[in-house]
Design goal:
9-stranded mixed β-sheet, 24 strands
Amino acid sequence: MISEKAILGKNVEIHELALVEDGATIGDNTKIGPFCIVRKGAIIGSDCKFTAYCEIRENVMIGNQTTFGSRCTISANAVIGSNVSIKYSFVLTDTPNLEEGSVKSVGSIGDGSLIGANVTLMPGFSIGKNSIIGACSQVRSEVGDNEIWYGNPAKLFKPRD
């Protein structure tokens, strides 16, 4: 189901079993697969691809040419750059910052990064530009630009050449 209040670019493909809520914006040539949910206020760039069972929560911003494998969840207010490749079962989590009441802390992912399958990005931590996170990793620290990390908890392996 596609809300009449959603804004769709040219040549957007949305599977008949996907849901796009009010105020969501989807850029040109983007493909939304089956059982995906795009929540209100989400902004998705051009030439993106969502395989299946992805949930893009409220007010998420996603750059151009970013791809998602199936079963990815992106928490509200997250920012994901352009040319990012996110493999299957990725979760970008959030949690309330108890010192600030109900304000939630959420991370971001920089342009050109590669996120392996089954990765969890913990609240408040971000991944820099052109970085790689290995499969099955849990990111609990800031990841700088051009770095390769893996493990649980994820640790710096080496700089990316």
